[in-house]
Amino acid sequence: MSSAEPTLNWSTPRLLFTGGLYAFWFLVAISLTLLGTDWLMKPTTYPVQNVHFAGPFTHVSQAELESVALPGLMGSFLTVDLDAAQQRIEALPWIDRAWLSRRWPNAIYVRFTEQKFVARWNDDAWLGNTGPAVVLPHHDGPLDVVQLRGPAGAEEQTLSTYRQWSEQLATIGLSIDELQLTERRMWALRLNNGVELLIGRDRLEERIQRFVKIYPVLVNEGRRIGRIDLRYANGVAVAWAKGRPTFSRQPVAR
What we know:
- The protein has 3 domains: 14-44; 50-113, membrane protein fhac (Ubiquitin-like (UB roll), Roll), CATH 3.10.20.310; 119-247, Rossmann fold, CATH 3.40.50.
- 33% of the residues lie in helices and 23% in strands.
- It has helices at residues 11-41, 62-73, 82-90, 155-170, 204-219; strands at 50-54, 95-103, 107-114, 119-121, 125-127, 146-149, 176-181, 187-191, 196-200, 225-229, 237-240, 246-247.
- The strands form 2 sheets. It has a 9-stranded mixed β-sheet, with helices on one face. A 3-stranded mixed β-sheet has the order 1-3-2, covered by helices on one side.
- The N and C termini lie far apart (130 Å).
């Protein structure tokens, strides 16, 4: 009786060898990737070598921009934090907006716009079309803008009210030189002809419209007006530039 000779099965060891080889090369690839990434991210591999500024340079000098921007831009071109640099630049009083971008292989470009102030706020700050009040060094903001006054936090409301009333007053050829909101929420203003208006804190639109209707009549009196108090139900009190206050006889529709 014959017996079969034993055979060897190499399939399992061969699979183990092949799988181990794949794992080895996978680990090598991961290691090389990590080493390459580490090398690329080093500040000395691709350092920022040029920073270019583009803007109006009317109230801001390049030296001022460099002093706040360059310390944060000196590093790897690939990893430098442009958002943080943007925030530092926009924190400068005269800067409105800033945009930063990378230019391969080693340059950062900075574009910016300056503030366009439309009003002075209290005694030491200015207002743009948007955003909070800005305190300028040496109070070197524009002087040919309207003066707005009010408590902290009322900047947006005061500017909005100024714009709204300016449109109505322009219909009778007048403009506002100064507008004030007091701590007690009382409104008053001075016109470009020197006349002061006391408006109060209630029925504001009704009172402004009343003034627009009655002002042409008061001008025809031929006397210089000093102050007009609109805080009455059916009329106004007029203080002439020289003389005692009197009530206008002009009826006003409510």
